[in-house]
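Input record, target 12 of the design panel.
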C-alpha cells in the first residue's frame, strides 16, 4: 500500500489533491443537507480506521475545512499577508480535549433533544473564519475535534512522510511551509517530522531541493 501511494503521489500531487478535495466537498455537501448523525459517525469512523495505517491523509486530501483554507492561504501568500501565531494558552492539552468533549456532547445532545442545529456546518464556518486571522496550525492541531482524535490514532501508522537524515542539509525550507508546524529541529540541526501531527500535504517534499523527504515506512 505504501509503495503504491508513494508512486501515485509523485505524479502531480497537487492536481490529484485538488480532484480528491472537490470529490469529498461534494460528498460533504450531501452529508450537510442530510445531517444524519449515523452517517457522520460511519464516515468519521472510517476515516479514523484508515488513519491508523496512512496517518492524517484525510486532513489535507478530504477535509472540507482544509479545502476552503487552501485558497485563503494562496491569496494571503500572494498579498504577503501574515497571520497571527496560535495563542500560547491554546497549546494546553486540556483545551483541545475539552473542545472535543464539548463537540461530542453538543452533537449527541442536539439529536437526542431533536434540536435542528447543523453543528458540522457551523464548525466548518468556524474553521474558515479562524484561518482568516490565525495560521492554520491553530485549527489543525488545537481546535479541530477530528484532528485531536487523529493525533492519537495516527501514532501506530506504519507509513508517512520521513526525512532522511543523511540527505538533510538543514536548510529549514520544509519547516517554513509546514501547515501544522509538525517539523522539529534535532540537536544536529537536521529536521524530523512528527507523524501524529503531519497532515500529509507533501508541501515539505515539494520544496526540498535535495530530495531528502519521502513517503515511506516510519
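The sequence produced for target 12 reads:
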Amino acid at each position: 500500500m505504501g509503495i503504491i501511494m508513494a508512486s501515485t503521489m509523485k505524479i502531480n500531487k497537487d492536481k490529484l489533491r485538488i480532484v480528491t478535495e472537490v470529490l469529498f466537498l461534494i460528498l460533504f455537501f450531501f452529508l450537510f443537507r442530510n445531517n444524519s448523525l449515523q452517517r457522520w459517525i460511519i464516515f468519521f469512523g472510517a476515516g479514523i480506521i484508515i488513519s491508523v495505517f496512512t496517518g492524517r491523509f484525510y486532513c489535507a486530501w478530504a477535509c472540507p475545512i482544509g479545502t476552503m483554507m487552501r485558497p485563503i492561504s494562496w491569496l494571503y501568500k500572494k498579498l504577503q499577508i501574515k497571520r497571527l501565531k496560535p495563542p500560547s494558552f491554546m497549546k494546553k492539552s486540556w483545551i483541545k480535549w475539552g473542545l472535543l468533549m464539548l463537540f461530542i456532547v453538543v452533537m449527541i445532545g442536539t439529536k437526542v433533544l431533536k434540536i435542528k442545529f447543523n453543528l458540522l456546518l457551523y464548525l466548518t464556518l468556524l474553521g474558515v473564519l479562524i484561518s482568516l486571522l490565525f495560521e492554520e496550525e491553530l485549527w489543525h492541531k488545537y481546535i479541530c475535534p477530528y484532528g485531536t482524535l487523529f493525533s492519537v490514532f495516527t501514532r501506530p501508522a506504519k507509513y508517512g512522510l520521513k526525512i532522511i537524515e543523511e540527505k538533510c542539509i538543514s536548510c529549514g525550507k520544509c519547516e517554513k511551509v509546514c501547515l501544522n508546524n509538525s517539523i522539529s529541529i534535532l540537536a544536529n540541526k537536521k529536521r524530523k517530522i512528527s507523524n501524529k501531527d503531519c497532515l500529509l500535504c507533501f508541501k515539505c517534499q515539494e520544496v526540498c531541493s535535495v530530495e531528502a523527504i519521502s513517503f515511506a515506512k516510519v
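The radius of gyration is 18 Å.
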